[in-house]
Design a protein that fits this description.
Helix 2 (42-65) runs antiparallel to helix 6 and helix 5 (137-147) packs across helix 6 (149-173). By secondary structure, the chain is of the alpha+beta class. Strands 1-2-3-4 form a four-stranded antiparallel β-sheet, with no helix packed on it. It has helices at residues 2-34, 42-65, 73-96, 102-133, 137-147, 149-173, and strands at residues 187-190, 193-205, 208-219, 222-227.
């Protein structure tokens, strides 16, 4: 039922909040209690929160598809088949464009699952109004949302979360890192670009001391931009 999904969704959000809280406060507590500086970085948060995020995306797709109270097997099957098809297509597409991490593929698949399930709620309402009241699609959409802003506003929030999840997953999955040791004036390759070290400089500021680099970005031997924290 939809109530069960809401309960599980809230439990997942609580677990997510607790995980971030522990990762944020643990270094402070460790330093205060033992005088030892501990760093909790990206690997911890990825390992602990990615499974929760994938589960949340799945639940955001299941929730709108289920009725209140009790759902029969036939209703569940009828409601979940289109989102499952969307999830399968997204999983194959993610693998085809280079995603290899299990959680990345699951995140893309569950994001498509949730997106199809939420958009289907709009389509069902629009289709009903078009048939019953002979309205065009845009008029039906406007009046549908206006008649129940809380419900359809919730679906908009879901779609926003889905967009954020896809963006984060894509930026971490398809990111490419290059590492090299260079001297002033030397160039290193970074995919289709080249990076030339212009200078390394130190600067004293009121709140910190900074050591930074000025790097020229080249393409086909021509400078197309600069990377500099001071710019």
């Amino acid at each position: 039922s939809r109530e069960t999904v809401f309960l599980l969704n809230n439990l997942m959000l609580t677990a997510f909040t607790f995980t971030v809280l522990v990762g944020t406060l643990f270094p402070i507590i460790a330093e205060a209690a033992r005088g030892v500086k501990v760093s909790v970085g990206e690997p911890f948060f990825n390992k602990m929160t990615l499974p929760i995020c994938a589960s949340l995306l799945f639940l955001m797709g299941v929730g709108p598809a289920l009725p209140w109270r009790r759902a029969s097997t036939d209703v569940v099957r009828r409601q979940l088949v289109p989102p499952l098809i969307g999830a399968a297509i997204a999983a194959f597409a993610a693998i085809a464009i280079g995603a290899r991490q299990v959680y990345a593929v699951l995140a893309f698949a569950f994001a498509a699952f949730a997106l199809v399930a939420n958009l289907r709620e709009y389509w069902t309402g629009i289709k009903a109004r078009m048939q019953l009241r002979n309205e065009d699609a845009m008029t039906a959409l406007g009046r549908l949302v206006g008649a129940n802003r809380r419900r359809y506003g919730g679906y908009v929030a879901h779609i926003g979360v889905i967009a954020v999840a896809v963006a984060i997953t894509a930026s971490s999955t398809f990111r490419k890192e290059y590492e090299a040791t260079v001297k002033k004036g030397q160039v290193m390759d970074a995919g289709a670009f080249q990076m030339r070290l212009v200078e390394v400089y130190a600067r004293e500021e009121p709140q910190r001391s900074r050591i930074a680099a000025n790097v020229a970005v080249l393409k086909d031997g021509k400078e197309i931009g600069r990377l500099d924290p001071a710019m």
